[in-house]
Write a structure and sequence with these properties.
The protein contains four helices and no strands. The protein is an all-alpha fold and about 60 residues long. It has a single domain, classed as Orthogonal Bundle (Protein Yjbj, Chain: A). The radius of gyration is 11 Å and the shape is globular.
């Protein structure tokens, strides 16, 4: 995947993150930066979710 495609995909994902994960601040969304490990950590911290459930949510977000 080239850089332009990756950046475009992240912009789409940011919108979904903001819609579906309202407890995440804009700074936290920026900190996630499209990286799975950052997303998992933030979602687990804010929502008390298990690693497995957080990974399922990442997959839903990434495949939408």
């Amino acid at each position: 995947m080239n850089k332009d495609i990756a950046e475009g995909k992240w912009k789409q994902m940011k919108g979904s993150l903001r819609e579906n994960w309202g407890k995440l601040t804009d700074d936290e969304v920026d900190e996630i930066g499209g990286r799975k490990d950052n997303f998992l950590g933030k979602v687990q911290e804010k929502y008390g979710m298990s690693q497995e459930d957080a990974e399922k949510e990442w997959d839903k977000l990434h495949n939408s």
